[in-house]
Amino acid sequence: MFLSLIAESLFGGRICLVDAIDRKILAALQQDGRLTITELAAQVGLSVSPCHRRLRELERSGAIRGYRAVVDAERVGLAFEALVFITMRQTDRETLLGFEAGVASIPDVVQAERLFGETDYLLRIVTADLAAYQRLQDDKITTLPGVQRMTSTLVSKRIVQDRPLPR
Q1: What is the mean pLDDT of residues 97-117?
Q2: pLDDT tens across 131-144, in order?
Q3: How many domains does one find in the chain?
Q4: Could you tell me the residue range of the domain that residue 52 belongs to?
Q5: Are 56 and 95 within one domain?
Q6: Would residue 91 count as lying in a domain?
Q7: Could you tell me if 39 and 86 lie in one domain?
Q8: Alpha-carbon span 3 to 83, nearest angstrom
Q9: Which of 3, 71, 122, 139 lies 20 to 30 angstroms, CA to CA, from 38?
Q10: Which of 61, 94, 110 lies at the terminal end of a domain, its last residue?
């Protein structure tokens, strides 16, 4: 009972229970989202129809949120990456929602997380170079509602990136 209450609060009441075959489908698609249904079925050991039904159910339930291309940022001219820790001056609901809406509207912010602890937010920002990052920081990030302090850490090397979820 306790676990289902936690799951309902975390996932808005939508829980997708997956079995071993569903996990195989998810693992295969995380490795290659362009698999045909025939290739996917062969990889997970099902015939096409049951595999297709399971895939549609995973999509319908929200376990699969979508499909996308993984783009190499450096090859498209976005070689500068910073992790930015934000401490808020105010933490009232209106300020936080305003800050979050502002962050969501900045295309250079490719990931944003609200945190528990001393720091309130972690942003992952990608730009062409240091000058572009500095302009973004000065013109947009520091002007967002409630920002008290920013601490930027530059990424020198990515060790793990776009890792599939564990089975």
Answers
A1: 97
A2: 999 999 999 999 99
A3: 2
A4: 2-61
A5: no
A6: yes
A7: no
A8: 34
A9: 71
A10: 61
Residue 37 belongs to a domain: yes
Asked if 99 and 147 touch (Cβ cutoff 8 Å), the reply is yes
Arithmetic mean of pLDDT, 74-78: 96
DSSP the chain: -HHHHHHHHHHTT------HHHHHHHHHHHH-TT--HHHHHHHHT--HHHHHHHHHHHHHHTSS--------TGGGT--EEEEEEEEES---HHHHHHHHHHHHT-TTEEEEEE-SSS--EEEEEEESSHHHHHHHHHHTGGGSTTEEEEEEEE----SS-SPPPP-
- Write the pLDDT tens digit of every residue in 33-45: 999 999 999 999 9
What CATH number should be reported for the domain holding residue 82? Answer: 3.30.70.920
3-6-12 Cα angle (round to 5): 130
**78 phi, psi to nearest 5 deg:** -120, 70
Same domain? For 78 and 113 the reply is yes
Tell me, what's the pLDDT at 4? Answer: 36
- Going by pLDDT thresholds of 50, 70 and 90, the confidence category of residue 83 is very high
Q: Is residue 165 part of a domain?
A: no
Say yes or no: 85 and 140 in one domain.
yes
